[in-house]
Specification:
By secondary structure, the chain is mainly beta. The two termini are about 35 Å apart. A six-stranded antiparallel β-sheet has the order 3-4-5-2-1-6. The protein has helices spanning about 30-35, 70-75, and strands at about 5-15, 20-25, 40, 45-55, 60-65, 80-85, 105, 110-120, 125-130, 135-140, 145-150, 155. The protein has two domains: about 5-85, Elongation Factor Tu (Ef-tu), domain 3; about 95-160, SH3 type barrels, CATH 2.30.30.
């Protein structure tokens, strides 16, 4: 995937027999996908015909030309991406997860800690999942009291790394 492409959802599989698919969302809700008419899905253009919310974090979608379960199932595992320039401007305090994935993490002394593997949210706040340079992973709250941003790296309070 090109660096200027942002993943908004992944196709989890077919839904029903008429070509609908289940989506795992990487956005706030299904309607944030509805503002995009066209997605890149592994080099294939998919045009959104309809979308509706399902369980939290999921949606049911129909794409033009996908008319049966077999075609829908063949899309399983593809990610739906759009150009970064197609995304709305961010409000204060908001960010795109893609901007942090792979970013270098250091402690207050500048010693290398590792890189950002993912950002999770289990209900309270966002959590950085850091792949440690020494092996393994550690999760720390992605809040100003624990993590500071400096140029192209993140500085994590060492007390949270134990």
């Amino acid at each position: 995937m090109a660096a200027d492409q942002i993943v908004l959802a992944a196709i989890a599989g077919a839904h029903g027999i008429r070509g609908e698919v289940r989506l795992k969302l990487f956005t706030d809700d299904a309607q944030s996908l509805a503002r995009h008419a066209r997605f890149d899905a592994g080099g294939r253009a998919l045009v959104l015909a309809a979308i509706r919310a399902d369980k939290p974090g999921t949606a049911i979608a129909r794409f033009e030309g996908v008319t049966d379960r077999n075609v829908a199932e063949s899309l399983r595992g593809l990610t739906l991406t759009v150009a970064r320039t197609a995304l709305p401007a961010l409000d204060e305090g908001e960010y795109y997860v893609a901007d942090y994935l792979g970013r270098s993490v250091v402690d207050e002394t500048g010693a290398t800690v590792g890189t950002v593997k993912s950002i999770e949210n289990f209900g309270a706040s966002d959590i950085l999942d850091i792949e440690l340079a020494s092996g393994g992973t550690v999760m720390v709250p992605f809040v100003a009291e624990v993590v500071r941003e400096e140029a192209d790296r993140l500085i994590v309070d060492r007390a949270w790394l134990a």
